[in-house]
Amino acid sequence: MTTLFLHATIITVNTAREVIHDGYLLVRGQHIAAIGKCPPPSSITSSDSEPEPETINCTGQIMIPGLINTHAHLVQSLLRGLAEDLPLHNWLCDAIWPLESVYEGDDGYHAARLTITEMLRTGTTTFLDPMVTYRAGWEGVCRAVGEMGIRGCLGKLVKFPETNRQLSITDPRDRDLINMSVATLIHHHQQYHGQHDGRLHVWAAAGTPRGAPASLYRDLGDACASHGISITMHCAEAPRDREIFHDVYGCSAMQFIRDTKLCPQPLPPPPPPPSTSTTRTTTQSGSSQTHHLVLAHMVNLDLEIDIPLLRSTKTAIAHNPSSNLKLASGIAPIPALLDTTTKIPEVSSSPPITISLGTDGAPCSNHYDMIREMHLASILHKGANHDASLIPAETALEMATINGARALGLETEIGSLEVGKKADLVLVDPYGRGGVGAAPWDWEDIGGGGVTAVTTVVHGCTGRDVGVVMVDGVVVVRDGEMVKGGREGEGEVVRQARMAVRGIRGRCNSGAGRVGGVLKCGWKDV
Ligand SMILES: [Zn+2]
Fold this sequence. Notes:
Elements: E1 2-11, E2 19-28, E3 31-37, E4 54-57, E5 62-65, E6 67-69, H1 88-100, H2 107-121, E7 124-132, H3 138-148, E8 151-158, H4 182-192, E9 200-206, H5 214-227, E10 231-235, H6 239-249, H7 253-260, E11 293-297, H8 303-312, E12 316-319, H9 321-326, H10 334-338, H11 345-348, E13 355-357, H12 362-365, H13 370-385, H14 393-400, H15 402-407, E14 425-428, H16 453-460, E15 466-471, E16 474-478, E17 481-482, H17 486-508
Parallel strand pairs: 1-4, 1-5, 6-7, 7-8, 8-9, 9-10, 10-11, 11-12, 12-13
Antiparallel strand pairs: 1-2, 2-3, 5-14, 14-15, 15-16, 16-17
Helix pairs in contact: 2-3, 2-17, 7-8, 13-14, 14-16
Bound molecules: zinc ion.
Domain Amidohydrolase-related: 62-476
InterPro entries: Amidohydro-rel (IPR006680), Metal-dep_hydrolase_composite (IPR011059), Metal_Hydrolase (IPR032466), MTA/SAH_deaminase (IPR050287)
Protein name: Amidohydrolase-related domain-containing protein
């Protein structure tokens, strides 16, 4: 299958950060075969052995790499709006954990289908889920990823007892601990990693350290290093999480990560080749480290201690501005983490910290729209720091694309539009869906001082302006609708989700509990 996109404004996010005006992009099979300025040379498509490519005219549209959401709970879409106006620890203990503990049957499958529909339709082509719970049903979530054509890293929850009376933490999901062990993780990794043409990746999702022995985390770190399983974890989210690191473990967040070896470890040097050749190789994948680590949130840190450790341990961050604001966790110190002009000598030679972007789950951000998240990431730190120069739109777009790919260890495959990379791409159509919010953006006024394509996408559009989405060379969204099933199929996904959440609420509230949406401030349903 060959597809030729013509007359697009292409934001490549390549090394030179080129924006191509009136550009073309050719997809052959799963990969980008050619990219440049129109007209494309006839040689790239004229082949007797190849059928004519499908041509998509993109006049007036902006092409970006597929967006990468590095912190998104797939199965929480069913809980959207059910835990409003609560701080993190109450939100977890009083609402989210009780609700998640009564998922059954196909609930997780229906939730995943709903989330993936929203992700694809708003331009996300790859995600990292930091917590597929036992009750959500692993098999069903994998099936949803396979059926719907998205690229996904599923974090299999590895959980140690979180119920902790001293800290007033009660987690009803702890009854399933046996199914959330390191051994179960390794088994799932062996069975599922690489399924669906390599679109499905299996990660470890470590439960947040809230009292469980550090030695259990060390066991997890060792197992992941020896099996090459990447890890993600919620870390230093609320102010209380920082206190727990200090009071329970006697260290900062990143000291905990270093000491438990959750961070990537260098691979031992390869054995000398049998011949006299001096060519050195690393692993089959070309990586020189055992695995990758993505820590979500990272709001409440000990910066003097944690910044050097973040850099020296090659730990990536998933920044979640919507979630952090809504749950009153605070504002992550992203400008300080991005600052490469540090005066700390042992840090200045380390590579900068990779900051990617995530929406988190629907109950704490109410959406999975990465364009909205980019907009917020860009404006939040300006206001918080009284510095309008911080996080320009270009930086926000890097977080949502190439940095996300780097965080996942997939930067040679996705994250930018370059020849040889997987064809994961999005066409944003600022005027096509009836909107005028991006006007008067003018794709024909090039370099004349008009609004740029990057500003237009990040600040003038939302995911609802996405028209076409391609993953792995396959068009999965066209005219703003899912190709498989169309509008009718989407309606069925929503209907199933409505049914599923009624069951979940019913089971959760069958005792004395009362969890769910409620009008506040004296407002009432009539
Ligand atoms: Zn989360």
